């Protein structure tokens, strides 16, 4: 990124760029070193602050093979991480940001992978993505090809527009972004809206 010093390149690329609520920001800060010690990364977090509090966390392996491919996280590892994350959150946040009972769901990012960190977006350049826009914007969903990643946001080629214009979307304008496989891109927007609905749940 243009705003990164050479020695800080790795930390900059791992930066979580999608908007976070204060609770989510606190949880990310607490869990990132714990998950890193387990060779995992926190891919996406969504905290519901409704009457039935719920914390949804997507995690994945950091390890890659000699071809640079990331192996999918196993179910047994998710089960182990669930217990670990539950203990960490209870010890660190139960009496502050998450008082009382809440439901914790830990899962794999899946095929339609959420993009949340700079390195996720750089890796997805040239691929189709779907963006769930902020509530203040007129259209809730925007699909297209990710052309470029900038310090302030992303450049998206709008394939739904006959002229295929390029759009600049800033980080704060986006609530959720997923990378689409070909079969996922052909789903109707109702299906995509359902998949992305957790991004704004309870906020």
Structural notes for this entry:
It is globular and about 55 Å long. With 203 residues, it is α+β, with helices and mostly antiparallel strands. The two termini are 30 Å apart. The chain contains six helices and eight strands.
Short overview:
The chain has 203 residues and is α+β, with helices and mostly antiparallel strands.
Give short descriptive properties of this protein.
three-stranded mixed β-sheet; five-stranded antiparallel β-sheet; alpha+beta; 29% helix
The structural class is alpha+beta
Average predicted confidence as pLDDT = 81
**Dominant shape:** globular
What count of helical segments does DSSP give?
Answer: 6
Low-confidence stretches: none
Number of strands: 8
- Looking across the biggest beta sheet, what order are the strands in? 7-6-5-4-8
What is the percentage of strand-forming residues? 25-35%
Query: Which percent bin holds the helix content?
Result: 25-40%
Task: Give the oligomeric state.
Answer: single chain
| Major sheet summary line | 5 strands, antiparallel
SSE series: HHEEHEHEEEEEHH
- Gyration radius from CA atoms, angstroms: 17 Å
Euclidean distance between termini CA atoms: 30 Å
